[in-house]
Amino acid sequence: MATRTIKLPDVGEGVTEAELAEIQVKPGDHVREDDPVAAVMTDKATVEITSVYSGKVVWVAGEVGDTLAVGAPLLKIETDQPEADSADGDPAPEADTQAPAAAPTRSRQRRPRNPPPRRRHGPRRQAARLRRRVPKAPPFWPRPPSGRGHARAG
């Protein structure tokens, strides 16, 4: 038989402690995996903590209203599993048998396939170029009658 410890999980970003709002088990109770064992309250929310082990509760940390730090032991459960997993009673993380594949490295950076179009000239120069393209009146167009330059009858 092994004694496993359930620690207070990180219940929110930036939360360092939580208050015990409700304890649903007491020493001597039998719990199964995923049974609710406690509820903790932070300044943001109330979160229900479930058991990750099946067995008999042997110890409960504190009473309703006590404040616990994140990662502090919440309760201890005596299980039927052997204690060979790790020294402190928590299960050892599963080790990967394969090493992760290394990402290929490139010696030089490539330019993007479709670079953004280049600006050839500023807006003033573009306006000047457009003005040059407007056709001017050819010399053979008749002048509008204006009363000047006309021969007087006389």
Automatic annotation (TrEMBL):
<feature type="region of interest" description="Disordered">
    <location>
        <begin position="79"/>
        <end position="154"/>
    </location>
</feature>
<keyword id="KW-0808">Transferase</keyword>
<keyword id="KW-0450">Lipoyl</keyword>
<feature type="compositionally biased region" description="Acidic residues">
    <location>
        <begin position="80"/>
        <end position="93"/>
    </location>
</feature>
<comment type="subunit">
    <text>Forms a 24-polypeptide structural core with octahedral symmetry.</text>
</comment>
<dbReference type="GO" id="GO:0016407">
    <property type="term" value="F:acetyltransferase activity"/>
</dbReference>
<feature type="compositionally biased region" description="Low complexity">
    <location>
        <begin position="94"/>
        <end position="106"/>
    </location>
</feature>
<dbReference type="InterPro" id="IPR000089">
    <property type="entry name" value="Biotin_lipoyl"/>
</dbReference>
<feature type="compositionally biased region" description="Basic residues">
    <location>
        <begin position="107"/>
        <end position="135"/>
    </location>
</feature>
<keyword id="KW-0012">Acyltransferase</keyword>
<feature type="compositionally biased region" description="Pro residues">
    <location>
        <begin position="136"/>
        <end position="145"/>
    </location>
</feature>
<dbReference type="Pfam" id="PF00364">
    <property type="entry name" value="Biotin_lipoyl"/>
</dbReference>
<protein>
    <submittedName>
        <fullName>Biotin-requiring enzyme</fullName>
    </submittedName>
</protein>
<dbReference type="InterPro" id="IPR011053">
    <property type="entry name" value="Single_hybrid_motif"/>
</dbReference>
<feature type="domain" description="Lipoyl-binding">
    <location>
        <begin position="3"/>
        <end position="78"/>
    </location>
</feature>
<dbReference type="GO" id="GO:0031405">
    <property type="term" value="F:lipoic acid binding"/>
</dbReference>
<dbReference type="InterPro" id="IPR003016">
    <property type="entry name" value="2-oxoA_DH_lipoyl-BS"/>
</dbReference>
<dbReference type="GO" id="GO:0005737">
    <property type="term" value="C:cytoplasm"/>
</dbReference>
<dbReference type="InterPro" id="IPR050743">
    <property type="entry name" value="2-oxoacid_DH_E2_comp"/>
</dbReference>
